[in-house]
Amino acid sequence: MNTLSFLLSKVWPKNDLNIKIRVITAFSCLILAKVASAFTPLSFKWIVDGLVDKKPIYFLIWAIILYTVTRVMSQILSELRDGVFSKVTQKVMRSLAMTVFNHLHRLDLDFHLSRQTGGLNRSLDRGIKGIEMFFRMSLFNLLPVFCEIILVFMILWLGYGFLYGFIALMSVVAYIAYTWIITKYLIGYVRTMNEADSKANTRLIDSLLNFETVKYFNNEQLESRRLDESLKIYQTTAVKNDVFRSFLNAGQSAIVAVGLGILMFFAVGDVRAGHMSVGDFVLINTFLIQLYIPLFMLGFAYREVKNSLTAMETMFAFLEITPKIQDKIDAPDLTFEKGEIVFKDVWFSYNPDRDILKGVSFKVKGGTTLAIVGETGSGKSTIAKLLFRFFDPKQGEILIDGQEIRDVTQDSLRKSVGVVPQDTVLFNDTVFYNILYGNPNASKEDVYLAAKGAQIHEFIESLPEKYETLVGERGLKLSGGEKQRVAIARLLLKKPSIFIFDEATSALDTVTEQAIQHNLIDISKAHTTVIIAHRLSTIQHADQILVLDAGVVAETGTHEELLNQKGLYHELWSKQSAD
What we know:
The protein is α/β, with parallel strands linked by helices. The chain has 18 helices and ten strands. The longest helix is centred in the middle third of the chain and has 53 residues, at 220-272. The protein is elongated, with a radius of gyration of 35 Å.
């Protein structure tokens, strides 16, 4: 009911008069089409009675004209209804798809790190398709059938007595009750099938995205077995679903046949007794056939509506997930001045039982460069994620120019901070698009200038398709170093106030790395820069170096000062120099 209520609120929006007019017009066409279809059997009755009673030819002509007009009008009004309502359906689909998509982008990094892309994609795909199927089946099948049931019941009751109307109504009630009971079991199978389908799609996409890893370890058979496990569950459940569906269809046919037989039995008796004409017999039979034909679709339509609601329920469930990282009410934008960064007693953990940062405190003066070094797992990249506010610390404060970053809007914070992450991922598009992503409003000249700053312009120009070269899924058509340089160019195009380089040159050769380092030093002058590095040779120029050890600040100072201290930094330097 929550899903249905949410969906209907989109069909009848408060401030969209055009959509409301279309909904009213479509429903008017629906009702008029059913009224026209009700007159079709009546005109057919008059034709039959006219032939039996040898009525004048003009009577038969008018009856035939009425029969033709009602059939044509019923069809035209039904098509008009579909055409008018099509814009409503498509607009609701677009609106809901964008609502879910935008909400997913508002969710925090923690959600996206734990998600399964294939299953998520499948849920969204089924949900969006379910919206169209819901409208098609509920408004264009279920609702017209119920309108026709009411019309037929009223005509039979008022024209031929309560008994005829009651028998027709009871047949429909028995049909609907039987359909509802069996469909309850079918929905359970549908949910299981959807889960198995999502799991299979997750494994399929995950395996194909990691194609190289599969090949490195000769695990094609393992991947095949894992996918087949999910497909087998889907297959078993689908067979049970088909068996129940056949049982449902057989029962529905039996109910319709029995109801039609009972009514014809009474109608034959009334015709023989002279209480009805042959035309009345034909009318009752035509009404019931006209009613039962769409009624045969009722079971299918009901199942599809339930399936659609189930699919939409899964999709809308994402909207109920509350982002852990949210702006405070009426939060102001970040007011950027010098770019001073302060961490005050910051504690953070991804899991409650293991702290990554343990009371980290440091200060970066505006316009200076801070380098963060330390062994793997010491918390270097976590500092970058906290500064970008992918996560919030469980204790302590992070300030930029004296403003706690939790008190300002995320949008203004992230516009001011630019990051080149350790693991560079590119869109499956052109090189130009991936660089332009840093600032979609930039000119071609700006893109070329950023590429030159990242030492990749000449390489791009050497490619057959130059900047229009497709980089492939996640940028896999480029080498690690090429991807990093594209990422650096993208950052340079963004022109943030604070630079964060998280192992930004780790995949580069020494010559290219040194060239880019000189460029980055020039570009980041007068900008606050945070460099997270493993190679100590790349951060000797830093104004301040922070040495982390197991989530604790072990040492701070310049390159020369730390070497003179003969501590952890000196030890790391000695190891790398020896290598």
